[in-house]
Automatic annotation (TrEMBL), chains A, B:
Residues 7-184 form the Phosphoribulokinase/uridine kinase domain. It is an enzyme of class 2 (transferase). Pathway: Carbohydrate biosynthesis; Calvin cycle. The keyword Nucleotide-binding applies. Pfam families: PRK. Keywords: ATP-binding, Calvin cycle, Kinase, Nucleotide-binding, Photosynthesis, Transferase. Its EC number is 2.7.1.19. Belongs to the phosphoribulokinase family. One of its GO terms (biological process) is reductive pentose-phosphate cycle. It catalyses: D-ribulose 5-phosphate + ATP = D-ribulose 1,5-bisphosphate + ADP + H(+). The lineage of its organism: Bacteria, Bacillati, Cyanobacteriota, Cyanophyceae, Synechococcales. It comes from Merismopedia glauca CCAP 1448/3. One of its GO terms (molecular function) is ATP binding. This is Phosphoribulokinase.
């Protein structure tokens, strides 16, 4: 192997869009080179035991966080792990699985940034933070369609989990390099076919491409691509906004900047005519395709490929 | 924890007496301070898959040796592991188990010394090498009484495994610090209640107590406790023989030497009136009690306790 595996984290609350975004980034990086790990597999208790103990899957005490840390460190150094398996379908803990990390490892889950030792293993840390109203909509849709719950059950479960979400999940935002929030435009009806905007918080903990050159900073308040200097959790960040109604013309410059820096990305540039970038099948089967999604995938893939270049030896 | 865990290996072929000796040594060390790991848990395939693939459990390719290496290294540094579980009763691979190592870890199994990385994790390496005739007797007894096989099935299985025993199991003798061979006296009928002799090969890879002072080296060929300089696999070793008919008087000096060096052992000195030392319940329920067994347990426990002393910090 030319370089150690590069570890990308996709962390966020239940139904925040982790699996969908993970699949999209794996497409850009090349699925044959990507190992996907879900940290839900590190649950200590199966579904029946959690119900019995009155503990939610979001609580660190419900997860082998120490084992997760060790496994992340092993993967980062290119060593195989015997990963436990949490079977979402049956809610059981099954026979573990041997995993030899490929070139890129995407680690998605609830608690990936919850400890220092775990955080230290990631090259790029993404946190998904859709507005709670949108996350609720996504969770109801998924859990009723794919996991056999009623809407009332899902809502009750979310309410039960809220204290743990607040205490353990949302604070992880502070440790991320990129915070991704898809959200519906304020003037749009809350429908399935609405084109979501994306708000990307770019924390200067990793070196983002210089967007000031390409985005007309703040000059036009209603331009579909905007960059603004802000504070996030009290710390300076850049915020890149891409509206759902942005056009190919609007995003061309950003895409080309990313792709010129990392030529491997060029084929995935949507403005290069690639029909698949920014096109994703959601976990409940709906087709998503948008420029905001394309820019999000490209920017994350950009950081993964840059990290790989740095660690080549 | 005052010191890192001390790792003792008990390696040998199937039915060589690993589990029984492991239990006996855990008694001497204090069961509350001992974690027992069986490397059979690192089988890659369940029983049905092994039959299908025509591979025996003795073959390294049938085991996650790399994962075993990593787990041994973790235990040695006092870190927990999520150990896979091979269910001997059902022949299945089950939900893994969280193990935080205690003061002493005894690792028993077939392939513990098969790689350099694994061997490097052990503080004391014991290899069990009963004569094949005795091992066959033990295996037939155990597998017919406890695992539901017929004698013919057990014999056929042993024959099928013999090439792998020769190629992968027996060569591990060379890496051990102590080779333990219980064997029936040549003049004894091959019966269950016969008092077995023990032959302990002491390889100078660890510092054994100076036996020359206490054992009348070679002067009396028929003394029930004898020490002899020999070669084992071409290399110089001491061989300590303790006959089954040795008396308390015969073993007193050896026991006191071990116990004076490591005072924690003193309560377990059989000549000190301890009724449990050298008394073991075999895996098929028979009671074993003898001075050869007592000396073997004490000598191994002696090395574990000495290693703990050295690594105290």
């Amino acid at each position: 192997m030319a370089h150690r595996p590069i570890i990308l984290g996709i962390v966020g609350d239940s139904a925040a869009g982790k699996t969908t975004l993970t699949k999209g980034i794996a497409q850009v990086l090349g699925e044959q080179d990507v190992t996907i790990i879900c940290t839900d597999d590190y649950h200590k208790y199966d579904r029946a035991e959690r119900a019995e103990n009155g503990i939610t899957a979001l609580h660190p005490d419900c997860n082998y966080v120490d084992i997760m840390e060790d496994h992340l460190a092993m993967l980062r150094s290119g060593r195989p792990i015997l990963k436990p398996i949490y079977n979402h379908h049956h809610g059981t803990l099954d026979r573990p699985e041997y995993i030899m990390p490929k070139k890129y490892v995407i680690v998605e889950g609830l608690l990936g940034y919850s400890t220092l030792a775990a955080r230290d293993c990631f090259d790029v840390k993404v946190y998904l933070a859709p507005p709670e109203s949108l996350r609720t909509e996504w969770k109801v849709k998924r859990d009723t369609r794919k996991r056999g719950y009623t809407e009332e059950q899902v809502m009750a479960e979310m309410q039960k989990r809220e204290p743990d979400s607040e205490q353990f999940i949302r604070p992880q935002r502070q440790w991320s390099d990129i915070i991704v929030s898809f959200y519906p435009p304020s003037d749009a009806p809350n429908e399935n076919d609405v084109q979501l905007n994306v708000r990307l918080v770019l924390r200067p903990t990793i070196s983002h491409p210089d967007m000031t050159k390409i985005v007309d900073s703040g000059s036009e308040g209603n331009h579909p691509v905007r960059l603004e200097l802000q504070r996030d959790m009290g710390k300076p960040v850049d915020v890149l906004e891409v509206d759902g109604h942005a056009t190919s013309q609007n995003v061309t410059d950003i895409e080309h900047t990313l792709c010129n820096d990392v030529p491997d990305l060029f084929p995935f540039c949507s403005t290069n005519g690639n029909p698949d970038i920014g096109k994703l099948v959601g976990t409940t089967g709906e087709l998503l395709q948008s420029y905001p999604l394309a820019i999000t995938q490209l920017l994350i893939a950009y950081h993964v490929l840059k990290a790989a270049k740095i660690h080549q030896h």
